[in-house]
């Protein structure tokens, strides 16, 4: 008798589901890449690779449907003391289906990840909007809550999510002789 290996979801293993999101069913394809390096759940990217905002391509089949994208760091300032959880790195609304984040309305500009301690998870969450709507930038980036944001704007459960891991690059910031 052959044993089937259980499929382990990296979003569950790395507690993205739990810390940031409730369980959800992905219903829209979303592709994210930094300089042609595609983001896959749990991949490792260096801060030097994520300086410039990524390309985000969103699927769907109805161009009259709009999406909201948030990017958060649930490990700020460090995984052992995430007192600033979830730090908001990017917020884009009104992204038409079948396009990308560049076609949306940037509400909070992209801030590149610069973790100083430990391995940080950077989570992209995509929500389907009920229609075009005005979204206000939060007063500050720290202690943003994707769940509360989705509830405030009636976004419902996520339709897609991806995350990558990032940590400080060794040898950066030292003095030269």
From TrEMBL:
Family according to the record: Belongs to the phosphatidylethanolamine-binding protein family.
Gene3D superfamilies in alphabetical order: PEBP-like
Species this protein is from: Kalanchoe fedtschenkoi (Lavender scallops)
Database matches in CDD domains: PEBP_euk
Listed name of the protein: Flowering locus T
InterPro entries in UniProt: PEBP (IPR008914), PEBP-like_sf (IPR036610), PEBP_euk (IPR035810), Phosphatidylethanolamine-bd_CS (IPR001858)
Regions that span the bilayer: none
